[in-house]
Task: structure prediction
Amino acid sequence: MNIDWLDDGRKIPDDVMFHIRIMAVHAVRVLDFSPELIATAYHFNRTCIYRWLKQYDEGGYDALESRMPPGAELSITAEIDNWLKQTVLTSTPTVFGYDTNLWTSTILADLLKKEFNVEVSESTVRLHLKAQNLTCQKPEYQDVKRDENEIEYFLHNKFPRIQRLANKIGADIGFEDEAGVGVMTRHGRTWGLKGRTPVVKVSMQRGGYNVLSTVTAEGELNYTIKDGTINGGRYIEFLVELISNRSTPLILLVDHATFHGSKQVRDFVRAHRSQLRVFFLPKRAPEFNPDEQVWNEIKNNHIGKQAVKNKQDLKERLVSALDALQKNTKRVISFFSLPDTLYACSNVP
Result:
């Protein structure tokens, strides 16, 4: 890590310097340290400390904020600010020839130099981004092959028709998905010494289970745990479990897994049309399936943080976690309150 700014305060970003000035003044005015001592500790000339103290005495902490010299022209204009915001929100660096999809202040500073011949520091870029209500975040990755038109059609045409069908035949609407959960499922963080990665002893035994589940907007959760690959036959076994004790028909929305559309499954659904209907969700758009949250709950909040010993122990923990979630109706209902799943709990007459 480059720390040459310890010997040259001019290399410290303006937003950081503002906080350093506050800390220095606080140390002198409140904690009663001498200006000379603070100047030595902070690697600044003592005249800087006295200037900060004078600014503070005349205008309080706000007077310590960095300000451009009088008459200096802004490097980044309002027009460039708007371009910067739109560029970040509507494109990726690959459009401009960079080999990454992620925006950084370094790339944006370089881009401003190329596009507008404006040379600014990375810290200045960050300040302007924050002023535009932009923050640095972990992105959500989406498949480049997904069809946004298909998603729009599903949300505004297909699903409302499914809801009307459900009202007409008195059916419940469920969302189904499946996921593998292994003994080596890991998630979460723990505390340890700085610079030394904590070591946690765990089982490295391979193996796991495939879990199928369905959820409804009313908070109903059903599941089954299968040892082995899910195929058409095993999926039909799950469908039989779902409809065997139901007093009302069930409409299921599923993804495009191969066995969902197999001839074997299609024939079963057709033969049980009065009890079961199956429709497909948009391709490559898992965020629109509320049942995806079951795996987030089970893997990330339960199994991934537990000390799973072996495959049998995993199954017992899976049953325990799924049973607990099944009883927690409010939690299941919350899966339909996310921005991408709200559509699934709306009513259509």
Summary: The longest helix spans residues 148-169. The first strand starts at residue 172 and ends at 182. The beta strands are 172-182, 208-216, 221-226, 250-254, 276-280.
